[in-house]
Write a structure and sequence with these properties.
Length: 616
Protein backbone atom coordinates (compact mmCIF):
# COMPACT_ATOMS: atom_id res chain seq x y z
CA UNK A 1 0.00 0.00 0.00
CA UNK A 2 1.26 3.49 -0.71
CA UNK A 3 -0.61 6.19 1.12
CA UNK A 4 -0.78 8.50 4.07
CA UNK A 5 -3.69 8.77 6.46
CA UNK A 6 -5.71 11.29 8.34
CA UNK A 7 -5.99 10.74 12.07
CA UNK A 8 -9.01 8.49 11.74
CA UNK A 9 -8.35 5.19 10.05
CA UNK A 10 -11.73 4.89 8.41
CA UNK A 11 -11.56 8.29 6.78
CA UNK A 12 -10.03 8.74 3.36
CA UNK A 13 -6.47 9.89 3.91
CA UNK A 14 -4.28 12.31 1.99
CA UNK A 15 -2.35 10.33 -0.58
CA UNK A 16 1.40 10.28 -0.63
CA UNK A 17 3.51 8.75 -3.35
CA UNK A 18 5.54 5.76 -2.33
CA UNK A 19 6.56 3.10 -4.52
CA UNK A 20 7.93 -0.22 -5.43
CA UNK A 21 16.12 -5.32 -12.42
CA UNK A 22 20.11 -8.42 -14.57
CA UNK A 23 21.10 -6.86 -17.20
CA UNK A 24 17.91 -7.73 -19.05
CA UNK A 25 14.54 -6.01 -19.21
CA UNK A 26 11.57 -6.72 -21.41
CA UNK A 27 8.20 -5.17 -22.05
CA UNK A 28 5.28 -7.50 -21.53
CA UNK A 29 2.66 -7.71 -24.28
CA UNK A 30 -0.91 -6.75 -23.61
CA UNK A 31 -3.03 -9.72 -24.70
CA UNK A 32 -6.78 -10.07 -24.78
CA UNK A 33 -8.53 -10.38 -21.39
CA UNK A 34 -8.31 -13.67 -19.56
CA UNK A 35 -11.04 -12.73 -17.09
CA UNK A 36 -14.26 -10.77 -17.29
CA UNK A 37 -16.27 -8.98 -14.66
CA UNK A 38 -19.14 -10.93 -13.16
CA UNK A 39 -22.70 -10.06 -13.96
CA UNK A 40 -25.11 -8.41 -11.57
CA UNK A 41 -26.16 -11.91 -10.41
CA UNK A 42 -22.90 -12.21 -8.42
CA UNK A 43 -23.78 -12.23 -4.72
CA UNK A 44 -21.15 -9.57 -4.06
CA UNK A 45 -23.02 -7.00 -6.10
CA UNK A 46 -25.35 -4.69 -4.19
CA UNK A 47 -24.28 -5.51 -0.62
CA UNK A 48 -25.53 -3.04 1.98
CA UNK A 49 -23.10 -0.56 3.51
CA UNK A 50 -21.92 -0.36 7.11
CA UNK A 51 -18.93 -0.39 9.41
CA UNK A 52 -19.54 -3.47 11.56
CA UNK A 53 -22.95 -4.25 10.08
CA UNK A 54 -22.34 -4.27 6.32
CA UNK A 55 -23.97 -6.88 4.11
CA UNK A 56 -21.85 -9.97 3.42
CA UNK A 57 -21.44 -12.53 0.66
CA UNK A 58 -19.54 -15.77 1.10
CA UNK A 59 -18.89 -18.70 -1.24
CA UNK A 60 -16.94 -21.88 -0.48
CA UNK A 61 -15.59 -20.35 2.74
CA UNK A 62 -16.78 -20.49 6.35
CA UNK A 63 -16.36 -17.50 8.63
CA UNK A 64 -14.74 -18.73 11.84
CA UNK A 65 -14.63 -15.41 13.70
CA UNK A 66 -14.62 -11.66 13.20
CA UNK A 67 -12.79 -9.53 15.73
CA UNK A 68 -12.97 -5.76 16.16
CA UNK A 69 -9.75 -3.74 16.44
CA UNK A 70 -8.07 -3.45 19.81
CA UNK A 71 -9.49 -0.43 21.70
CA UNK A 72 -6.14 1.37 21.33
CA UNK A 73 -6.67 1.39 17.56
CA UNK A 74 -10.29 2.50 17.39
CA UNK A 75 -11.14 6.09 16.31
CA UNK A 76 -11.75 7.22 19.90
CA UNK A 77 -7.98 6.90 20.39
CA UNK A 78 -5.91 10.10 20.89
CA UNK A 79 -5.90 12.52 17.98
CA UNK A 80 -2.72 12.39 15.93
CA UNK A 81 -2.71 8.61 15.59
CA UNK A 82 -3.30 6.95 12.23
CA UNK A 83 -5.42 3.94 12.99
CA UNK A 84 -5.30 1.77 9.87
CA UNK A 85 -4.44 -1.89 10.31
CA UNK A 86 -1.77 -3.20 7.95
CA UNK A 87 0.05 -6.50 7.39
CA UNK A 88 0.30 -9.78 9.33
CA UNK A 89 3.01 -12.11 10.57
CA UNK A 90 2.65 -15.29 12.63
CA UNK A 91 4.50 -17.04 15.43
CA UNK A 92 3.20 -20.09 17.28
CA UNK A 93 -0.37 -19.45 18.39
CA UNK A 94 -0.14 -15.72 17.72
CA UNK A 95 -0.77 -13.41 14.80
CA UNK A 96 0.83 -9.98 14.89
CA UNK A 97 -1.07 -7.30 12.99
CA UNK A 98 0.64 -4.09 12.03
CA UNK A 99 -1.12 -0.78 12.47
CA UNK A 100 0.00 2.64 11.27
CA UNK A 101 0.43 3.53 14.93
CA UNK A 102 1.84 0.29 16.31
CA UNK A 103 0.80 -3.35 16.28
CA UNK A 104 -1.67 -5.78 17.82
CA UNK A 105 -0.76 -9.24 19.09
CA UNK A 106 -3.69 -11.64 18.60
CA UNK A 107 -3.91 -14.93 20.49
CA UNK A 108 -5.22 -17.39 17.87
CA UNK A 109 -4.89 -20.58 19.91
CA UNK A 110 -8.67 -20.78 19.44
CA UNK A 111 -9.33 -19.16 16.03
CA UNK A 112 -13.06 -19.06 16.77
CA UNK A 113 -12.34 -16.75 19.70
CA UNK A 114 -9.23 -14.73 18.84
CA UNK A 115 -8.31 -12.36 21.65
CA UNK A 116 -6.03 -9.34 21.97
CA UNK A 117 -2.88 -10.35 23.85
CA UNK A 118 -1.30 -6.90 23.51
CA UNK A 119 -1.82 -3.61 21.67
CA UNK A 120 1.47 -1.72 21.39
CA UNK A 121 1.10 1.93 20.44
CA UNK A 122 4.12 3.22 18.52
CA UNK A 123 3.55 5.82 15.84
CA UNK A 124 5.45 5.06 12.65
CA UNK A 125 3.50 4.17 9.49
CA UNK A 126 2.96 1.61 8.09
CA UNK A 127 4.33 -0.80 10.66
CA UNK A 128 5.03 -3.68 8.29
CA UNK A 129 5.79 -6.65 10.58
CA UNK A 130 7.97 -9.77 10.47
CA UNK A 131 9.25 -12.26 13.05
CA UNK A 132 12.27 -14.48 13.48
CA UNK A 133 12.38 -16.72 16.57
CA UNK A 134 12.11 -14.31 19.53
CA UNK A 135 12.50 -11.14 17.44
CA UNK A 136 9.85 -8.86 15.93
CA UNK A 137 10.76 -6.33 13.24
CA UNK A 138 8.53 -3.32 12.53
CA UNK A 139 8.87 -0.82 9.68
CA UNK A 140 8.78 2.92 10.31
CA UNK A 141 8.61 5.60 7.63
CA UNK A 142 6.41 8.44 8.85
CA UNK A 143 8.20 11.75 9.50
CA UNK A 144 6.38 11.93 12.83
CA UNK A 145 7.69 8.57 14.00
CA UNK A 146 9.86 8.85 17.08
CA UNK A 147 12.61 6.77 18.64
CA UNK A 148 10.63 6.74 21.90
CA UNK A 149 7.37 5.67 20.16
CA UNK A 150 5.73 8.88 21.34
CA UNK A 151 2.42 9.80 19.75
CA UNK A 152 3.19 13.54 19.83
CA UNK A 153 5.09 13.24 16.54
CA UNK A 154 7.99 15.37 15.37
CA UNK A 155 7.65 18.38 13.08
CA UNK A 156 11.30 19.46 12.93
CA UNK A 157 12.99 19.46 9.53
CA UNK A 158 15.98 17.71 11.09
CA UNK A 159 15.45 15.81 14.30
CA UNK A 160 17.60 13.50 16.45
CA UNK A 161 14.34 12.05 17.85
CA UNK A 162 13.01 10.77 14.53
CA UNK A 163 12.79 7.06 13.67
CA UNK A 164 12.74 6.06 10.03
CA UNK A 165 13.85 2.49 9.52
CA UNK A 166 13.40 -0.78 11.42
CA UNK A 167 12.41 -1.19 15.06
CA UNK A 168 13.47 -4.43 16.76
CA UNK A 169 11.48 -5.98 19.61
CA UNK A 170 12.20 -8.96 21.84
CA UNK A 171 9.00 -11.05 21.96
CA UNK A 172 10.26 -13.81 24.25
CA UNK A 173 7.30 -12.72 26.37
CA UNK A 174 5.00 -11.99 23.45
CA UNK A 175 2.32 -10.45 25.65
CA UNK A 176 4.87 -7.86 26.74
CA UNK A 177 7.11 -6.99 23.76
CA UNK A 178 10.33 -5.25 24.68
CA UNK A 179 11.74 -2.57 22.34
CA UNK A 180 15.47 -3.36 22.20
CA UNK A 181 16.99 -1.64 19.15
CA UNK A 182 16.47 0.14 15.87
CA UNK A 183 18.27 0.56 12.59
CA UNK A 184 17.93 3.96 10.96
CA UNK A 185 17.79 4.00 7.15
CA UNK A 186 18.03 6.81 4.64
CA UNK A 187 14.55 6.39 3.16
CA UNK A 188 12.76 4.84 6.10
CA UNK A 189 11.03 1.51 5.71
CA UNK A 190 7.71 1.29 3.89
CA UNK A 191 8.01 -2.49 3.80
CA UNK A 192 10.71 -4.96 4.69
CA UNK A 193 11.48 -8.63 4.13
CA UNK A 194 13.26 -10.99 6.52
CA UNK A 195 15.69 -13.14 4.55
CA UNK A 196 16.97 -16.41 5.94
CA UNK A 197 20.18 -17.87 4.54
CA UNK A 198 20.33 -21.69 4.61
CA UNK A 199 24.13 -21.42 4.88
CA UNK A 200 24.32 -18.80 7.63
CA UNK A 201 22.85 -19.84 11.02
CA UNK A 202 24.35 -16.85 12.81
CA UNK A 203 22.64 -14.00 10.96
CA UNK A 204 19.44 -13.06 9.25
CA UNK A 205 19.06 -10.26 6.75
CA UNK A 206 16.36 -7.67 6.15
CA UNK A 207 15.67 -6.13 2.75
CA UNK A 208 14.33 -2.62 3.32
CA UNK A 209 12.12 -0.92 0.74
CA UNK A 210 11.77 2.77 1.57
CA UNK A 211 9.40 5.00 -0.33
CA UNK A 212 9.67 8.38 1.36
CA UNK A 213 12.11 11.12 0.29
CA UNK A 214 15.73 10.62 1.28
CA UNK A 215 16.33 12.17 4.68
CA UNK A 216 18.92 14.93 4.99
CA UNK A 217 22.52 14.00 5.78
CA UNK A 218 22.29 16.32 8.78
CA UNK A 219 19.77 13.88 10.25
CA UNK A 220 21.48 10.65 9.18
CA UNK A 221 25.05 10.80 7.93
CA UNK A 222 25.71 9.48 4.45
CA UNK A 223 22.22 9.97 3.06
CA UNK A 224 22.10 11.53 -0.40
CA UNK A 225 19.09 12.17 -2.62
CA UNK A 226 21.21 13.37 -5.54
CA UNK A 227 21.27 11.40 -8.76
CA UNK A 228 24.00 8.76 -9.14
CA UNK A 229 25.62 11.01 -11.75
CA UNK A 230 25.86 13.76 -9.14
CA UNK A 231 26.80 11.48 -6.26
CA UNK A 232 27.91 7.84 -6.67
CA UNK A 233 26.68 7.21 -3.11
CA UNK A 234 23.13 8.24 -3.96
CA UNK A 235 20.35 6.34 -2.19
CA UNK A 236 18.30 6.26 -5.38
CA UNK A 237 17.77 3.00 -7.30
CA UNK A 238 18.84 0.97 -4.25
CA UNK A 239 17.49 -1.09 -1.42
CA UNK A 240 19.14 -1.27 1.97
CA UNK A 241 20.20 -4.64 3.42
CA UNK A 242 20.38 -5.00 7.20
CA UNK A 243 22.36 -7.77 8.86
CA UNK A 244 21.00 -8.93 12.22
CA UNK A 245 23.51 -10.96 14.29
CA UNK A 246 21.30 -13.37 16.22
CA UNK A 247 23.68 -13.51 19.17
CA UNK A 248 23.33 -9.74 19.61
CA UNK A 249 20.44 -8.26 17.60
CA UNK A 250 21.07 -4.83 19.11
CA UNK A 251 24.10 -4.67 16.78
CA UNK A 252 21.98 -4.94 13.65
CA UNK A 253 23.24 -2.57 10.97
CA UNK A 254 23.03 -1.76 7.27
CA UNK A 255 25.57 -4.00 5.56
CA UNK A 256 25.01 -3.15 1.89
CA UNK A 257 22.98 -1.00 -0.51
CA UNK A 258 22.71 -2.94 -3.78
CA UNK A 259 21.61 -0.86 -6.76
CA UNK A 260 19.17 -3.43 -8.11
CA UNK A 261 17.27 -0.77 -10.10
CA UNK A 262 20.26 0.88 -11.75
CA UNK A 263 20.12 1.69 -15.48
CA UNK A 264 16.48 0.76 -16.03
CA UNK A 265 14.68 2.95 -18.52
CA UNK A 266 11.45 4.83 -18.02
CA UNK A 267 8.40 2.60 -18.45
CA UNK A 268 5.24 3.12 -20.37
CA UNK A 269 2.02 2.46 -18.52
CA UNK A 270 -1.62 3.35 -18.81
CA UNK A 271 -3.02 6.56 -17.39
CA UNK A 272 -6.17 7.03 -15.40
CA UNK A 273 -9.67 7.04 -16.77
CA UNK A 274 -10.76 10.57 -17.83
CA UNK A 275 -12.96 11.00 -14.77
CA UNK A 276 -10.22 9.80 -12.44
CA UNK A 277 -7.69 12.10 -14.09
CA UNK A 278 -9.90 15.10 -13.38
CA UNK A 279 -10.36 14.03 -9.75
CA UNK A 280 -6.61 13.44 -9.31
CA UNK A 281 -5.77 16.85 -10.77
CA UNK A 282 -8.22 18.48 -8.37
CA UNK A 283 -6.73 16.65 -5.39
CA UNK A 284 -3.20 17.54 -6.47
CA UNK A 285 -4.15 21.22 -6.77
CA UNK A 286 -5.72 21.15 -3.31
CA UNK A 287 -2.56 19.62 -1.82
CA UNK A 288 -0.31 22.16 -3.49
CA UNK A 289 -2.51 25.03 -2.32
CA UNK A 290 -2.50 23.68 1.24
CA UNK A 291 1.28 23.33 1.11
CA UNK A 292 1.64 26.90 -0.18
CA UNK A 293 -0.57 28.24 2.63
CA UNK A 294 1.64 26.38 5.12
CA UNK A 295 4.76 27.87 3.56
CA UNK A 296 6.20 24.60 2.33
CA UNK A 297 6.71 22.89 -1.00
CA UNK A 298 5.52 19.46 -2.03
CA UNK A 299 8.34 16.90 -1.69
CA UNK A 300 10.04 15.81 -4.88
CA UNK A 301 9.73 12.06 -5.26
CA UNK A 302 11.83 11.55 -8.36
CA UNK A 303 15.22 12.90 -9.39
CA UNK A 304 15.31 15.88 -11.70
CA UNK A 305 16.46 15.31 -15.26
CA UNK A 306 15.51 12.84 -17.98
CA UNK A 307 12.88 10.21 -17.09
CA UNK A 308 14.23 7.08 -15.44
CA UNK A 309 12.89 3.81 -14.19
CA UNK A 310 11.74 3.41 -10.56
CA UNK A 311 14.03 4.78 -7.86
CA UNK A 312 12.85 2.35 -5.19
CA UNK A 313 11.06 -0.98 -4.65
CA UNK A 314 7.74 -1.32 -2.91
CA UNK A 315 8.04 -4.89 -1.64
CA UNK A 316 10.25 -7.95 -2.14
CA UNK A 317 9.29 -11.59 -1.69
CA UNK A 318 12.24 -13.94 -1.22
CA UNK A 319 12.23 -17.70 -1.79
CA UNK A 320 15.48 -18.90 -0.18
CA UNK A 321 14.88 -22.55 -1.12
CA UNK A 322 15.39 -21.68 -4.79
CA UNK A 323 17.73 -18.71 -4.31
CA UNK A 324 15.39 -16.22 -5.99
CA UNK A 325 13.37 -13.15 -5.04
CA UNK A 326 10.61 -11.23 -6.76
CA UNK A 327 10.91 -7.48 -6.39
CA UNK A 328 7.74 -5.47 -6.98
CA UNK A 329 9.38 -2.19 -7.84
CA UNK A 330 6.77 0.37 -8.94
CA UNK A 331 7.43 0.31 -12.70
CA UNK A 332 9.00 -3.14 -12.95
CA UNK A 333 8.72 -6.69 -11.71
CA UNK A 334 12.28 -7.72 -10.90
CA UNK A 335 13.77 -11.20 -10.61
CA UNK A 336 16.69 -11.31 -8.15
CA UNK A 337 19.43 -13.81 -7.37
CA UNK A 338 19.66 -13.97 -3.55
CA UNK A 339 22.08 -16.86 -3.11
CA UNK A 340 24.34 -14.29 -1.47
CA UNK A 341 21.61 -12.63 0.63
CA UNK A 342 23.77 -9.67 1.60
CA UNK A 343 24.27 -8.78 -2.05
CA UNK A 344 21.14 -9.53 -4.11
CA UNK A 345 21.70 -9.28 -7.85
CA UNK A 346 19.20 -8.37 -10.56
CA UNK A 347 18.62 -11.07 -13.17
CA UNK A 348 15.69 -9.66 -15.13
CA UNK A 349 13.13 -6.86 -15.10
CA UNK A 350 9.70 -7.11 -16.72
CA UNK A 351 7.45 -4.17 -17.52
CA UNK A 352 3.81 -4.15 -18.57
CA UNK A 353 1.81 -1.27 -20.04
CA UNK A 354 -1.24 -2.63 -18.20
CA UNK A 355 0.48 -2.23 -14.84
CA UNK A 356 0.44 1.03 -12.90
CA UNK A 357 2.35 0.08 -9.72
CA UNK A 358 4.06 -3.28 -9.21
CA UNK A 359 3.22 -3.99 -5.58
CA UNK A 360 4.01 -7.53 -4.36
CA UNK A 361 5.07 -10.98 -5.54
CA UNK A 362 4.25 -14.65 -4.86
CA UNK A 363 6.09 -17.69 -6.22
CA UNK A 364 4.50 -21.01 -7.10
CA UNK A 365 5.70 -23.69 -4.73
CA UNK A 366 7.80 -25.39 -7.41
CA UNK A 367 9.47 -22.05 -8.18
CA UNK A 368 8.56 -22.21 -11.87
CA UNK A 369 6.10 -19.29 -11.79
CA UNK A 370 5.77 -15.93 -10.08
CA UNK A 371 2.71 -13.73 -9.66
CA UNK A 372 2.97 -9.93 -9.33
CA UNK A 373 0.13 -7.68 -8.15
CA UNK A 374 -0.64 -4.20 -9.46
CA UNK A 375 -1.78 -1.63 -6.88
CA UNK A 376 -3.31 0.78 -9.37
CA UNK A 377 -4.69 3.76 -7.46
CA UNK A 378 -2.47 3.18 -4.42
CA UNK A 379 -5.02 1.21 -2.45
CA UNK A 380 -7.25 4.18 -1.67
CA UNK A 381 -9.23 4.32 -4.89
CA UNK A 382 -12.09 2.31 -6.42
CA UNK A 383 -10.39 0.30 -9.15
CA UNK A 384 -12.68 -2.75 -9.42
CA UNK A 385 -15.62 -0.97 -11.02
CA UNK A 386 -17.52 -2.55 -13.88
CA UNK A 387 -16.10 0.16 -16.15
CA UNK A 388 -12.46 -0.59 -15.27
CA UNK A 389 -10.28 -2.58 -17.64
CA UNK A 390 -9.89 -6.08 -16.13
CA UNK A 391 -6.14 -5.97 -16.89
CA UNK A 392 -5.66 -2.92 -14.66
CA UNK A 393 -5.22 -3.33 -10.91
CA UNK A 394 -4.88 -7.08 -11.39
CA UNK A 395 -2.30 -9.85 -10.99
CA UNK A 396 0.11 -10.80 -13.77
CA UNK A 397 1.47 -14.35 -13.85
CA UNK A 398 4.85 -15.23 -15.34
CA UNK A 399 6.75 -18.42 -16.01
CA UNK A 400 10.37 -18.28 -14.84
CA UNK A 401 12.49 -19.38 -17.80
CA UNK A 402 16.07 -19.68 -16.59
CA UNK A 403 16.88 -16.07 -15.67
CA UNK A 404 13.96 -14.40 -17.43
CA UNK A 405 10.20 -13.95 -17.07
CA UNK A 406 7.65 -15.03 -19.68
CA UNK A 407 4.15 -13.58 -19.35
CA UNK A 408 1.24 -16.05 -19.12
CA UNK A 409 -1.96 -14.31 -18.02
CA UNK A 410 -3.87 -11.98 -15.69
CA UNK A 411 -6.20 -12.51 -12.76
CA UNK A 412 -8.53 -9.86 -11.41
CA UNK A 413 -11.32 -10.01 -8.86
CA UNK A 414 -14.26 -10.97 -11.10
CA UNK A 415 -17.04 -9.15 -9.23
CA UNK A 416 -17.51 -5.40 -9.87
CA UNK A 417 -17.32 -3.15 -6.81
CA UNK A 418 -18.82 0.28 -6.25
CA UNK A 419 -17.46 3.79 -6.56
CA UNK A 420 -17.27 4.03 -2.75
CA UNK A 421 -15.10 0.92 -2.25
CA UNK A 422 -11.32 1.15 -2.48
CA UNK A 423 -10.42 -2.02 -4.35
CA UNK A 424 -7.32 -3.30 -6.13
CA UNK A 425 -5.00 -6.31 -5.96
CA UNK A 426 -3.11 -6.55 -2.66
CA UNK A 427 -1.40 -9.10 -0.38
CA UNK A 428 -2.00 -12.84 -0.44
CA UNK A 429 -0.33 -16.21 0.06
CA UNK A 430 -0.36 -19.77 -1.19
CA UNK A 431 -2.75 -22.31 0.30
CA UNK A 432 -0.84 -25.61 0.59
CA UNK A 433 -3.03 -27.87 -1.54
CA UNK A 434 -0.67 -30.50 -3.01
CA UNK A 435 -0.35 -30.45 -6.78
CA UNK A 436 -2.09 -27.09 -7.24
CA UNK A 437 -1.20 -23.39 -7.06
CA UNK A 438 -4.02 -21.89 -5.00
CA UNK A 439 -3.84 -18.46 -3.43
CA UNK A 440 -5.90 -16.44 -0.99
CA UNK A 441 -5.61 -12.73 -1.78
CA UNK A 442 -6.86 -9.48 -0.26
CA UNK A 443 -8.58 -6.90 -2.48
CA UNK A 444 -9.27 -4.17 0.11
CA UNK A 445 -13.04 -3.52 0.02
CA UNK A 446 -13.28 -6.09 -2.76
CA UNK A 447 -12.90 -8.66 0.03
CA UNK A 448 -10.94 -11.90 -0.15
CA UNK A 449 -10.66 -13.97 -3.32
CA UNK A 450 -9.32 -17.52 -3.41
CA UNK A 451 -8.20 -18.60 -6.87
CA UNK A 452 -6.36 -21.39 -8.67
CA UNK A 453 -3.48 -20.37 -10.95
CA UNK A 454 -2.07 -23.82 -11.63
CA UNK A 455 -2.79 -23.06 -15.29
CA UNK A 456 -1.20 -19.59 -15.41
CA UNK A 457 -3.03 -18.61 -18.59
CA UNK A 458 -6.45 -19.42 -17.12
CA UNK A 459 -6.64 -18.57 -13.39
CA UNK A 460 -10.01 -19.35 -11.82
CA UNK A 461 -11.74 -18.09 -8.67
CA UNK A 462 -12.87 -20.91 -6.38
CA UNK A 463 -14.00 -19.09 -3.18
CA UNK A 464 -14.62 -15.60 -1.82
CA UNK A 465 -15.81 -13.38 1.03
CA UNK A 466 -16.93 -9.79 0.65
CA UNK A 467 -18.62 -7.04 2.63
CA UNK A 468 -20.49 -4.00 1.40
CA UNK A 469 -18.87 -0.56 1.47
CA UNK A 470 -18.30 1.36 4.68
CA UNK A 471 -20.67 4.04 3.38
CA UNK A 472 -22.88 3.97 0.32
CA UNK A 473 -22.24 7.63 -0.55
CA UNK A 474 -18.65 8.33 0.52
CA UNK A 475 -15.45 6.35 0.08
CA UNK A 476 -13.97 5.50 3.50
CA UNK A 477 -10.74 3.57 3.65
CA UNK A 478 -11.32 -0.05 4.67
CA UNK A 479 -11.10 -3.62 3.46
CA UNK A 480 -8.53 -6.39 3.61
CA UNK A 481 -4.88 -5.40 3.56
CA UNK A 482 -3.79 -9.03 3.55
CA UNK A 483 -5.27 -12.52 3.50
CA UNK A 484 -2.86 -15.31 4.48
CA UNK A 485 -3.10 -19.05 5.10
CA UNK A 486 -1.51 -20.16 8.36
CA UNK A 487 -1.83 -23.61 9.92
CA UNK A 488 -5.25 -24.49 8.57
CA UNK A 489 -7.02 -21.13 8.41
CA UNK A 490 -7.14 -17.97 6.32
CA UNK A 491 -6.49 -14.84 8.40
CA UNK A 492 -7.55 -11.44 7.11
CA UNK A 493 -6.25 -8.07 8.30
CA UNK A 494 -9.10 -5.61 7.84
CA UNK A 495 -7.94 -1.99 7.73
CA UNK A 496 -10.91 -0.54 9.61
CA UNK A 497 -12.87 -3.52 10.92
CA UNK A 498 -10.22 -5.61 12.65
CA UNK A 499 -9.13 -9.20 12.21
CA UNK A 500 -11.07 -12.07 10.63
CA UNK A 501 -10.61 -15.84 10.40
CA UNK A 502 -11.96 -18.18 7.72
CA UNK A 503 -11.97 -21.87 6.85
CA UNK A 504 -12.17 -23.36 3.39
CA UNK A 505 -15.35 -25.28 2.61
CA UNK A 506 -15.42 -28.29 0.28
CA UNK A 507 -16.88 -27.66 -3.15
CA UNK A 508 -16.74 -28.87 -6.72
CA UNK A 509 -13.49 -26.90 -7.02
CA UNK A 510 -11.85 -28.15 -3.81
CA UNK A 511 -12.52 -31.42 -2.01
CA UNK A 512 -12.34 -32.24 1.67
CA UNK A 513 -9.31 -34.44 0.96
CA UNK A 514 -7.50 -31.46 -0.59
CA UNK A 515 -8.41 -29.26 2.39
CA UNK A 516 -7.28 -31.93 4.87
CA UNK A 517 -4.01 -32.37 2.97
CA UNK A 518 -3.42 -28.61 3.13
CA UNK A 519 -3.93 -28.69 6.89
CA UNK A 520 -1.03 -31.14 7.25
CA UNK A 521 1.42 -28.30 6.50
CA UNK A 522 2.38 -26.59 9.76
CA UNK A 523 4.65 -23.64 10.45
CA UNK A 524 6.21 -22.61 13.74
CA UNK A 525 6.47 -19.07 12.30
CA UNK A 526 5.44 -17.52 9.00
CA UNK A 527 6.51 -14.36 7.21
CA UNK A 528 4.72 -14.58 3.88
CA UNK A 529 7.36 -12.45 2.14
CA UNK A 530 10.05 -14.93 3.29
CA UNK A 531 8.26 -17.64 1.32
CA UNK A 532 8.81 -21.15 2.69
CA UNK A 533 8.94 -24.32 0.61
CA UNK A 534 5.72 -26.28 1.20
CA UNK A 535 6.38 -29.90 2.11
CA UNK A 536 3.66 -32.41 2.93
CA UNK A 537 4.13 -35.33 5.31
CA UNK A 538 3.52 -38.71 3.69
CA UNK A 539 -0.17 -39.48 4.19
CA UNK A 540 -3.06 -41.28 2.53
CA UNK A 541 -5.05 -38.07 2.39
CA UNK A 542 -2.36 -36.51 0.18
CA UNK A 543 -2.69 -39.42 -2.25
CA UNK A 544 -6.47 -39.05 -2.19
CA UNK A 545 -6.12 -35.33 -2.92
CA UNK A 546 -4.27 -36.24 -6.13
CA UNK A 547 -7.00 -38.78 -6.98
CA UNK A 548 -9.65 -36.08 -6.50
CA UNK A 549 -7.75 -33.77 -8.84
CA UNK A 550 -7.45 -36.44 -11.51
CA UNK A 551 -11.17 -37.12 -11.14
CA UNK A 552 -12.05 -33.42 -11.50
CA UNK A 553 -9.87 -32.96 -14.57
CA UNK A 554 -10.54 -36.39 -16.17
CA UNK A 555 -6.86 -37.25 -15.95
CA UNK A 556 -7.66 -40.96 -15.92
CA UNK A 557 -10.80 -42.91 -16.71
CA UNK A 558 -13.42 -43.17 -13.99
CA UNK A 559 -12.97 -46.95 -13.89
CA UNK A 560 -9.23 -46.62 -13.39
CA UNK A 561 -9.62 -43.99 -10.67
CA UNK A 562 -12.17 -46.15 -8.89
CA UNK A 563 -9.66 -49.01 -8.91
CA UNK A 564 -6.95 -46.69 -7.54
CA UNK A 565 -9.25 -45.56 -4.72
CA UNK A 566 -10.11 -49.17 -3.87
CA UNK A 567 -6.43 -50.06 -3.71
CA UNK A 568 -5.70 -47.11 -1.40
CA UNK A 569 -8.60 -48.13 0.88
CA UNK A 570 -7.35 -51.73 1.06
CA UNK A 571 -3.81 -50.59 1.79
CA UNK A 572 -4.85 -48.21 4.55
CA UNK A 573 -6.76 -51.00 6.31
CA UNK A 574 -3.88 -53.45 5.89
CA UNK A 575 -0.58 -53.47 7.73
CA UNK A 576 2.94 -54.83 7.41
CA UNK A 577 3.85 -56.72 4.26
CA UNK A 578 0.28 -56.68 2.91
CA UNK A 579 0.18 -52.89 2.98
CA UNK A 580 3.63 -52.55 1.45
CA UNK A 581 2.86 -55.02 -1.33
CA UNK A 582 -0.47 -53.40 -2.24
CA UNK A 583 1.06 -49.93 -2.40
CA UNK A 584 4.16 -51.01 -4.33
CA UNK A 585 1.97 -52.75 -6.92
CA UNK A 586 -0.26 -49.67 -7.20
CA UNK A 587 2.76 -47.37 -7.67
CA UNK A 588 4.01 -49.53 -10.54
CA UNK A 589 0.58 -49.46 -12.17
CA UNK A 590 0.44 -45.68 -11.85
CA UNK A 591 3.84 -45.37 -13.54
CA UNK A 592 2.26 -47.10 -16.53
CA UNK A 593 -0.90 -44.95 -16.28
CA UNK A 594 1.19 -41.79 -16.50
CA UNK A 595 2.31 -42.67 -20.01
CA UNK A 596 -1.22 -42.39 -21.41
CA UNK A 597 -2.81 -39.91 -19.00
CA UNK A 598 -3.90 -36.44 -20.10
CA UNK A 599 -2.36 -35.24 -16.82
CA UNK A 600 0.84 -37.26 -16.55
CA UNK A 601 2.40 -34.77 -14.10
CA UNK A 602 -0.29 -35.37 -11.52
CA UNK A 603 -0.30 -39.14 -12.02
CA UNK A 604 3.45 -39.09 -11.36
CA UNK A 605 2.87 -37.07 -8.20
CA UNK A 606 0.31 -39.66 -7.09
CA UNK A 607 2.68 -42.52 -7.90
CA UNK A 608 5.42 -40.84 -5.88
CA UNK A 609 3.14 -40.40 -2.88
CA UNK A 610 2.00 -44.04 -3.07
CA UNK A 611 5.61 -45.20 -3.27
CA UNK A 612 6.45 -43.06 -0.21
CA UNK A 613 3.54 -44.64 1.67
CA UNK A 614 4.89 -48.08 0.78
CA UNK A 615 8.28 -47.15 2.22
CA UNK A 616 6.85 -45.61 5.39
Amino acid sequence: MRLGYSSVAIAMGVLSAAGCASSHAAATPSPSPTVTQSSSTDARVGLSAGWFNAGEAIWNLKKVSENKPAPAFLPKSPAGLSLANSDLTFTGNYAIQGNFSGFTVWDISNPAHATVADAYVCRGSQSDVSVYKNLLFVSGEELGGRLDCGIQGDTATVSPERLRGIRIFDISDIRHPKYIANVQTCRGSHTHTVVTDPNDPNNIYIYVSGSAPVRPAAELAGCSGATPQQDPNSELFRIEVIQVPLANPAKAHVISKPDILAHLGAVEHHGETPADSIAAAKLRAEREAAAARAGRTMPQRRPAGPPTGPVQCHDITVYPAIGLAGGACAGYGVLLDIRDPAHPRRLFAASDTNFSFWHSATFSNDGHKVLFSDEWGGGTQPRCRATDDPHWGADAIFTIDHDSLDFDGYYKLPAPQTQTENCVAHNGSLIPVPGRDIMAQAWYQGGISVFDWTDPAHPKEIAYFDRGPMNKDTLYLAGYWSAYWYNGHIYGSEIARGFDVFDLAPSANLTQNEIDAAKLVHFDQLNVQDQPKLVWPTAFVVARAYVDQLTRDNGLSSARLSAVSDALNRAEKASGADRTSTLAQLATQLDNDAQSSSDSRRVKLLAGEVRALAAK
